[in-house]
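4.2 Preliminary Data

To establish feasibility before requesting continued support, the project team ran the inverse folding procedure on a target of 460 residues. The structure was first converted into the token representation described in Section 3, and no sequence information of any kind was made available to the design step. The complete token record follows.
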């Protein structure tokens, strides 16, 4: 069964049990309620009659007895199912019908008594009236008797039970239907998750998203988490596919050169010098392959955040100066490298990654620089970021290429530079900058030069 059906069945079962409990409770308390109501009515009836009797009672000094006018005007002997009696202190009936007055039941002042006579249930209430405080030995009893009408009670209770049995099932049905609808609405994101998972499993389409919209409940959080997970999986698979495609494309040429050279060398005998030249070529191509694979792996690790970043307090000024000194040793085309980085610009970062940023950008400036040109390296900071500018007076970058130069394996027009590269340097530099909470900005004028500004967070 589906979850919503299970929830609905459980909810309906609970409501049915609750309905039966309510009916049982109504049946149980209705008898007590009916009896208590009758008892209160009987008490009021007796006490009202006791007041009337008090107005018509006198004390006979000759007989030392209380006398009562038997023609009491406002004394009510019967009211509905209640009957009133007046007795003297000896239990002799003075006023009231003489058919039934329960003389065998003891008098108890201001208390309810329950008795059964010939299978009929009665409620009895006695009230002791002391007419003359000077003669406390003589008094009157006002007794009220109420017949418990079981047929009326059963009819009333039956009517209530019948009404409840008609209404409550409708309530249960309404609750079940609305519960099923609510369960369907609440579990709709789960259904979308299931469909998205099936679609991905059947068609390998990781672009699927659940998109349940806004919401803070558990199901919405689950759906949004699954969306993020699918996004990460898509990114991971795309990175893997891109890595495989790019690596196979870039490795095809050096692999072909190595195989061709090996086949040529094995076809016939070669001189030692020819073998040496062949091995030198193979070695150069193997190094190129090794360098390419290392750069690809480094890029992929940073892209997937699997490369460990060792951030530590460092003096950026010293790091830039050391890097510039190292780059001057491999200067090309007579290009002059000038460095102005101030004193003691400090930040928190990974020195290897920052050095990789500088090396790649400066190498790029050398590669696309002009003969006897210049490269200027400058560093400065504000309250939150440090900025490292690498500016050159080289050939510049066309506007159409500025948004694409950070893509993997992208190289601008080869005719603009005699240097050959893999197009990974700027991509690696940008990834390293993003690992430090920053980015790389580009300003360039074709024919005049370019400026790359690396923005790094001082403390993450």
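Position-by-position output of the design step:
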């Amino acid at each position: 069964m589906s979850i919503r059906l299970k929830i609905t069945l459980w909810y309906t079962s609970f409501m049915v049990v609750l309905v039966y409990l309510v009916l049982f409770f109504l049946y149980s308390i209705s008898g007590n309620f009916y009896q208590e109501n009758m008892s209160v009515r009987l008490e009021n009836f007796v006490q009202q009659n006791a007041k009337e009797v008090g107005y018509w009672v006198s004390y006979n000094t000759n007989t030392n007895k209380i006398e009562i006018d038997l023609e009491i005007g406002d004394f009510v002997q019967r009211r509905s199912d209640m009957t009133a009696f007046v007795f003297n202190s000896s239990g002799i009936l003075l006023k009231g019908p003489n058919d039934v007055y329960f003389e065998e039941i003891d008098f108890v002042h201001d208390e309810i008594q329950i008795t059964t006579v010939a299978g009929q249930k009665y409620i009895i209430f006695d009230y002791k009236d002391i007419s003359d405080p000077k003669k406390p030995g003589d008094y009157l009893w006002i007794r009220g008797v109420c017949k418990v009408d079981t047929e009326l009670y059963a009819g009333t209770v039956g009517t209530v039970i019948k009404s409840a049995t008609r209404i409550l099932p409708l309530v249960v049905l309404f609750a079940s239907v609305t519960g099923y609808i609510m369960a369907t609405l609440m579990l709709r994101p789960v259904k979308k998750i299931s469909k998205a998972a099936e679609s991905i499993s059947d068609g390998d389409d990781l672009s699927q998203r659940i998109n349940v919209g806004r919401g803070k409940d558990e199901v919405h959080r689950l759906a949004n988490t699954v969306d993020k997970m699918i996004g990460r999986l898509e990114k991971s698979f795309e990175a893997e596919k891109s890595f495989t495609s790019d690596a196979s494309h870039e490795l095809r040429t050096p692999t072909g050169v190595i195989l061709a050279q090996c086949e040529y060398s094995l076809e016939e005998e070669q001189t030692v010098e020819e073998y040496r030249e062949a091995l030198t070529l193979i070695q150069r191509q193997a190094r190129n392959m090794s360098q390419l694979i290392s750069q690809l792996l480094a890029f992929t690790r940073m892209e997937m955040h699997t490369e460990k970043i060792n951030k530590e307090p460092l003096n950026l000024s010293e790091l830039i100066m050391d890097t510039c000194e190292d780059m001057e040793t491999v200067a090309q085309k007579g290009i002059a490298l000038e460095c102005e980085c101030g004193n003691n610009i400090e930040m928190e970062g990974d020195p290897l990654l920052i050095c990789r940023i500088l090396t790649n950008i400066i190498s790029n400036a050398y590669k696309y620089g002009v003969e006897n040109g210049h490269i200027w390296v400058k560093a400065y900071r504000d309250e939150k970021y440090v900025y490292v500018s690498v500016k050159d007076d080289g050939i510049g970058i066309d506007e159409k290429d500025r948004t694409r130069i950070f893509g993997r394996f992208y190289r601008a027009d080869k005719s603009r530079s005699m240097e050959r590269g893999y197009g990974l340097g700027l991509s690696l530099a940008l990834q390293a900058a993003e690992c430090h909470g920053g980015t790389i900005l580009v300003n360039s004028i074709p024919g005049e030069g370019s400026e790359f500004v690396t923005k790094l967070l001082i403390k993450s």
